[in-house]
Write a structure and sequence with these properties.
This protein has 226 residues and is of the alpha/beta class. It contains seven helices and eight strands; from the N terminus they run E-H-E-E-E-H-H-H-H-E-H-E-E-E-H. Bound molecules: adenosine-5'-triphosphate. Part of the ABC transporter complex HmuTUV involved in hemin import. Responsible for energy coupling to the transport system.
Amino acid sequence: MVRNLFLCVPVPAFVAVVGHNGSGKTTLFRVLTGQLPYQGSVQLHGQEVRDLRRAASAGLLGYLPQRGSIDFAIAVRELVVMGRYRHHGLLSAYAPADYALADAALARVGVAHLAARDFTQLSGGEQQLVWLAQLSLQDAQVYLLDEPTQQLDVYYRRRVFTLVHDWATRHGKTVLCSTHDLDNLPELSGYLLNLSEPQPQLRVISADSVREARAWLEQAPLGVKS
Ligand SMILES: Nc1ncnc2c1ncn2[C@@H]1O[C@H](COP(=O)(O)OP(=O)(O)OP(=O)(O)O)[C@@H](O)[C@H]1O
């Protein structure tokens, strides 16, 4: 449950969504993707979410859930190229130009060497990077990333933060990125949204605002005895 959220996210922007476990980060994303009902008004680019149909296919929204799983063997490159489905349809054959884009997306994430591997045999962190490469091909206007660095080592964490921050600052996207990783935030420009606060609001990312959020999150959540 998320309550008392009154805010307007600028376009474009990078927004780091933080909060204790269970504070509602995933819930917020599920509301924005139309998977959960809500009270009040939630709009994406001026359109009420409950009235939106297939926002993803309209090119408005790209969503990276916390866990994505696949139970059949598929080459990484074949999975990534599916990020082009909106330009193609899922069942039509992809052209060499699509595969070139898939290879470039893998390279940007730093996992070009995995292109021919079976996705199901990759480590959790490698799979997370491949999903991100696929998402980047969707060319959506708004990206919701649910803890995209959760399983990553320190090198890839920083690399992914830099990459998705670039989506906002260089490519004009609006990126909402939930995370428990505060260490990489002070170097980024954008906003911080702490859902553990009683009345969460956007704060400009700075060393001070990240320090404040950290101090808040190091305390027990409201209503939990320490
Ligand atoms: N399907 C559900 N039915 C009932 N309650 C749910 C459901 N999904 C989540 N919740 C509850 O909603 C609250 C917010 O959960 P949510 O997954 O949004 O938290 P979160 O901030 O993403 O947490 P984390 O950092 O652990 O990923 C939690 O108390 C959770 O138990």
